[in-house]
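Moderator note: this is an archived Q&A kept for reference. The question asked for a predicted structure of one protein chain; the sequence and the answer are reproduced below.
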Amino acid sequence: MLNEFSKRKKDVLSKLDKSSIGRWDEKISQLCNRINSSGKYYTTSSCSGRIILMIDAEKKGEGLFVFVSHEKVPFEKLKEELILALKKNKKIKFKLEPCILHVSCETLEDAEHIYEKAKLAGWKKSGIIGIKNGFTVELNSTEKLEFPIIQNKKVLVNEEFLKIVLDEANKKLEKSWGKIEKLYKLLNKSL
């Protein structure tokens, strides 16, 4: 007979992925699979990091993605996407978002284990959230960039700046992926 934690895990992992791409990002799938293979843990949310153009909204949840990539973005591709975004006649933001991972844990000790390994792997913005049905470890990396890039149908930055910031965003994305790999190696030895 399954305990309450195992029932929740089975229920969560049997549901369809509600992310915009409908599955785990390729760069984080190995880590999610390893965590989910343990009886003490399951993942509830993940992202390997992404570069996005999105409509700037007044309220959270109202922003619409204009472009999303979980891979490094070539300069010419960004230019193409900016041309398409200009047609929206909206304020558009450029964002690099870091890797994130939420892990539901059977016990506080299990949560502490994930938290400590994540800290060793460089996931600096992390914590344990106590909830009625157990414990969730929220893991966030720190690689971020965000600024307005289009307003009033005009790109606000020149091409030279765009090349510099895209290069930086691509480097930060790679850094996030390195933290995912490091956490995978640490957990693969200890779960």
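Archived answer notes: Residues 36 and 111 are 14 Å apart (CA to CA).
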